[in-house]
Amino acid sequence: MRLNLFSVICAALLCASPTVAAEAPGFYAGVIAGTAVPGSTGFAGNLFAAIIDDSGSFLSPTSIVDGGVDPAFLTKLNDALAAVDYPDQAIGGQIEADGRLDWAPSSTGGAVFGYGFGNGWRAEAELSSSGFSATRMTIDDLSGASAEGEIDGSGVWTWTDDGALSLGSVPSFLLDDLGLFTLDTRLDFLLANGWFDFDTGTGLTPYIGAGAGLARVTTTLGTGCGCTMNSVSEIVPAASVGGGVRIKVGGPVTLDFGYRYKVAFNSTQTVTMSESVSGATESLSVTQPGAIGVHAFQVGLSIALP
């Protein structure tokens, strides 16, 4: 499908005359629908778990001593410790991973409102959305750490570093096979686009152009069974580039077969999911840094407004 669409666009551009389109100026509105294919993105993950024994004979610690535990890890251990009234001893660990995520293609849809200047140029506002689910994870670097904690007769609690572990890389795998969590990303674009139409002297008008605007990126982390989820949203700069072919189908109606490459820039989101039951605490956080790019193959239908 992609190759056929590119062939139509390229052939139309090669056959186009360098003269500008003779279309009369005016406003138009339309809808778009199609398929969006996201590129892979980077991620950083952190899985934390701790088991706190609540059968001890001492009340909550009078003080807490750090026996060489990493500060970020120590904070999580102390948060788990504070949730238990009578701690005696505990063990905790965390695994940190860096790598890449692959995403499944998705449908995309939206609306446009534009104005043709009658000299080949068009200005257009676009509102479009698409949502993606992560399917495959590739871990390039995996490391772990563990710690033990216990209380003495005076009520002093000591966390002791139990050593770090470098686990190297992990072959890519499907998230469905892992069954630990689901990760979804929704992209809502609001773009101001500029298009140039090439006059071919026929009802077939190829065009190219680009745009800029904003994107709202929403990332949702859920359990493998879909029982719990946490979402965060962020508005970031966005841009697009693309082209296509417009076809007059009669009266004020025009069909548009197009391609867009859209990018949401500087998106860095961290979603966290945690649970604490009977002294057992676990949490998972996933950070998705950097730009998110999407290839959109779309069909549009627009109507010239009176």
Strand content: over 45%
Number of strands: 14
Write down the CATH topology: Porin
Strand order, largest beta sheet: 1-5-6-8-9-10-11-14
Structure explained in plain terms:
- The protein has helices at 2-15, 71-82, 175-178, and strands at residues 26-38, 41-52, 63-67, 89-103, 106-116, 121-151, 156-174, 181-197, 204-223, 229-250, 253-264, 269-277, 280-288, 292-304.
- By secondary structure, the protein is mostly beta strands.
- The chain has one domain (2-304): Porin, CATH 2.40.160.20.
- A hairpin with a 4-residue loop joins β5 (106-116) and β6.
- The longest helix has 14 residues, at 2-15.
- The chain starts with a helix and ends with a strand.
Task: Please outline what is shown here.
The chain has 306 residues and is mainly beta.
